[in-house]
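Handoff note, outgoing to incoming analyst
You'll be picking up this chain. Sequence as last confirmed:
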Amino acid sequence: MEAASGLRFGVGDRVQCKTSAAKWKRGTVVALRYREEHWPPGTVAPYQVQLDAGALIYAPQDSECLVRADDGGEQLDSGAEVHVCQAGPCRRAGGEAVLLEIEEMANSVGGVVVQPSGCLGNCSQAPNALVVADASERIFARLCNLSATAEVVERASGRAPSLDDPEMVSRLQRARRLRVRMEAREESKWNLALAGLAEDVQAAPSQEDRLELVQEHAQLLAAAGFGEKALEVLSAVASSDEPSLQNVPHLRLLLDQAKTLARLGRVADVEALQSRVDRLKPRNARESNIKAQLVQLLRETIHEVATQLGSSPRIQGYARWRLDGITPVSKHSAVYRFRTDDASRGTPIRRGRGGRTVWSKTWHVTLLAEVGEGNPEGPLPWLERDYTPISTAQDWESGRCDILIKIYLEPPGLATEWLHGACGDARAAAATGGGRAREALVWLSRPAK
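Most recent structure output, in case you need it:
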């Protein structure tokens, strides 16, 4: 737009404004001869400018030392900071990968300081980042894709990072999924770890990457108690021909097959794999060493089968608990009382030379709500929900765990709805004065910090 008489810029012109002793920031002129009500009569500012970061400011004088034309070429220091949450819920949702994405995109536009931070107090909408610019703060929540993190960088710097590089986009997306899987695997959250993994296998850029992802996919399925599905995944890439001592990736798949078969108690199938390995003829010392290690591992696997025969399928990192009763606390919450004698439940009590000590930090457990196939959180038929027991570590060691659970009714939460259905008999017993639930069983994880 044409500038008003006596002014250098018009509404809509791109300018740079001096915002401190050494910093300039980009913006757009939005008003001419701007004034505020409390100013003395006749006092006006030549320009009101909206900075790219969103703030409205005014230029007190039409001076080159305060406001100048912007040709878009000069790199300016925005002075903005981005704090990326790395606390538990955000880290589990891929916070480390979000930090990596924002760092890389911020480097491409310049002028933004990116650093990890503690909890930002918005755990229910993880992962989160906080942008601090122009003395203002804004939280960006649910940073679940590159478009969301690009918006954070644009807000902080005033410049949109380019997402036209397919190699960079693919690399960052793979990094995010890998970080989420690593964190989920460490916490025995198998549904979260498996989410999207089958699609990653299909989109693997090379055969080597595909084999690694297939192996991880099968290991996670086996850990979640789905041994037959794990075998199906492995059989899709495992060769029906005799294994080769030169093909180490396929030998790893063979070992995974043996371990999965052992968990299922299929001794004959493990022995058949061992026979295939026994027939291999090493051609040098390296192959002889590989065969010896392979034979030893298969023998150990067969020996382990004997200890697992007759046992029901288990979920790694979890134990079966029964619901012993429900005590309503309010209209929207109740204490669920669980009991078990499963020795695999773990403990929050550390044992060492100094004796027994309880974890100093709050600990939690993960409950599996078995809502069935097709749930939105992953390919497994359950939801994973973290709870902090209100009972003690000593209670846990005695096979008791009390959890205060908030009940979402309008609209019903998926896990809450499952608890209502699975534990209806226990709720009825509690309403009439107590009693034991009839085999209302749940999976609870080992305690975790």
